[in-house]
Design goal:
It is found in: Cell envelope. The protein is α/β, with parallel strands linked by helices. It has helices spanning about 5-20, 30-35, 90-110, 125-135, 150, 185-200; strands spanning about 45-50, 65, 70-75, 80-85, 115-120, 140, 165-170, 175-180. The chain has a single domain (about 5-200), classed as Glutaredoxin. It contains six helices and eight strands; from the N terminus they run ααββββαβαβαββα.
Length: about 200
């Protein structure tokens, strides 16, 4: 191959690497998604489902390892609301909603709700790079090898619907679902706030 060809291939490789870790202030994939250009991407339609307390199924039991190798389990989150977001690094709508998720995570920290990501495709290095690029501080379970998290939530998330965000009540039951990217942070904020409020029922006299 000619020197010019080698240079061309190197430039393409560098451009691809830059695209993978582009910051949220200028992200072509996220911008394409916001503009309505899905590039053949299969995702949810953004529909919102709320489940009345009396109609919720059994608590979801799960366990896994985070991108830093720390073990996590459903028992760790009982007693408070848990927001579970399914994502992966090259997912355009996942990038588009990352800021909103992190902002809400910070807003509800210590106030009755915790966030947990579930990365369905990446190994630790890419997951950590994504979190650093987008300033995400909550952990994510790596689910690419055995799909255990997806299996645990299989009754709540359909195949190919990434991102999907679930709100679990204090008992670990699915209380609400956003199938696809979060259209407005205020929508998820309301779902979280309403579910937190359930955990403080008025006692009968």
């Amino acid at each position: 191959m000619s020197r010019a060809g080698l240079v061309s291939r190197a430039v393409v490789g560098l451009a691809a690497a830059a695209l993978l870790l582009t910051g949220c202030t200028s992200d072509p994939l996220a911008d394409q998604y916001r503009a309505g250009d899905s590039k053949g991407y299969i995702a949810g339609d953004g529909s919102i489902t709320e489940i009345a307390s009396a109609d919720r199924g059994d608590p979801v039991e799960f366990a896994g390892l985070t991108e830093t190798g720390e073990p996590v389990a459903s028992a760790d989150y009982l007693g408070e609301v848990t927001v579970v977001n399914f994502w992966y690094a090259s997912c355009a709508p996942c990038r588009a909603e990352a800021d909103d998720l992190q902002s809400l995570n910070a807003q509800f920290e210590g106030k009755g709700a915790s966030f947990l990501g579930v990365n369905v495709r990446d190994q630790a290095a890419n997951a950590l790079a994504f979190s650093e690029t987008y300033g995400v501080t909550y952990p994510s379970v790596l689910d690419v090898d055995d799909g255990g998290m997806q299996l645990a939530f299989s009754g709540s998330i359909p195949p190919n619907a990434v991102p999907t965000t679930l709100v679990l009540d204090a008992e670990g039951r699915v209380a609400a679902r956003i199938l696809g990217a979060i259209a407005e942070a205020s929508i998820l904020e309301t779902l979280i706030t309403d579910t937190i409020a359930e955990g403080s029922p008025v006692e009968d006299n």
